[in-house]
C-alpha cells in the first residue's frame, strides 16, 4: 500500500518535471514570447504587465487587505521601474513620458510627467518634470522648452525612489497660483499672504480668490481656473475675450 502511494507520488513528480521542461524548451526556442515589438520593429526583452505579476490572490496569503495593497503597490513600482530603466538605458533615450498611456491631473490641472536620465552625473541620476498639457508660455527668443513647467524635482539615484516621490507629490502637493507646494510650504505661503495680503483688485475672474497670475491681456486668472476654462472649450480671456488662455505670459 505504502509502496503504491509512493509510486503515485513519484509519477506525479515526473509529470510536473516534464511540464516545467516543456515550458523551458518552448520559451528558450522562442524568445519572442517574452518580447514586445517597438515602433521601429525591434524586439525588447520586456513585456506587458501581466495581471499575475501584480495581482495577488488573498486566499494564498493570510494577511490584511492593507498589507495586500502595499505588496501590490510595491510590485507595480518594481515593474514600472524595470520598464523605465530598460527604456532609458537600452534605448539610450534621455526622457521617458510617464503619462504616455494615461490621463494625469496635478491638483486638477491637466499635466504630463517626463522622467530624465542624467548621464553627466556620476553615478547616473534621474529627475522629473511636471508640465502643463494645455498651457504654453510665450517663449523667449532662443528658448527650447515652450511648455509651462509646473514642477521640477531634485535628483534621485534610483527610478524606484523617483516614482515614490511622484506619488507623494500627486497626493499631497497643491497649487497656489502656479507654485506647486508641499503641505509645509503651503502653510508658509498662506501665512505670508495673510501678513502681506494681495490687493483686492487682483482677484481671479473665475473663482474670486486673490491671485498673482493674469492673462496676456492683463486680466487676473489663476492657473487652475485657466486650465478648467480651456478644458471646457472656453479658450479666451473670461473678462475681455481679447487673449488666448493657452498662452501664459512670459513674466508676471
Ligand atoms: Zn481662479
Ligand atoms: Zn482680458
Number of strands: 10
Alpha-beta content class: alpha+beta
Low-pLDDT segments, ≥5 res: 27-51
Question: What is the general shape?
Answer: elongated
Classify the beta-strand content into a percent band: 15-25%
Order of helices and strands: HEEHHEEEEEHEEHHE
The amount of helix comes to: 25-40%
Number of helices: 6
User: Termini, distance in Å?
Assistant: 89 Å
**Mean residue pLDDT:** 82
Question: What is the alpha-carbon Rg in Å?
Answer: 26 Å
Summarize the biggest pleated sheet: 6 strands, mixed
Ligands bound to this protein structure: zinc ion
Plain-language structure description:
By secondary structure, the chain is an alpha+beta fold. Among the domains are: 37-93; 95-187, no CATH class. 37% of the residues lie in helices and 19% in strands. The chain has 6 helices and 10 strands. It has helices at 2-29, 51-54, 65-90, 159-172, 183-195, 223-231; strands at 36-37, 43-44, 95-97, 104-106, 109-118, 125-137, 147-152, 174-176, 179-181, 247-248. Strands 3, 4, 5, 6, 7 and 10 form a 6-stranded mixed sheet that branches. A hairpin with a 5-residue loop joins strand 1 (36-37) and strand 2. The radius of gyration is 26 Å and the shape is elongated. Bound molecules: zinc ion (2 copies). One zinc ion is lined by residues 204, 206-207, 209, 222, 224-225.
What's a concise summary of this model?
The chain is α+β, with helices and mostly antiparallel strands and 252 residues long.
Set out the fold topology.
Elements (H helix, E strand, L loop, with lengths): L1 H28 L6 E2 L5 E2 L6 H4 L10 H26 L4 E3 L6 E3 L2 E10 L6 E13 L9 E6 L6 H14 L1 E3 L2 E3 L1 H13 L27 H9 L15 E2 L4
Helix pairs in contact: 3-4
Bound molecules: zinc ion (2 copies).
The site of one zinc ion has 7 residues, from helix 6.
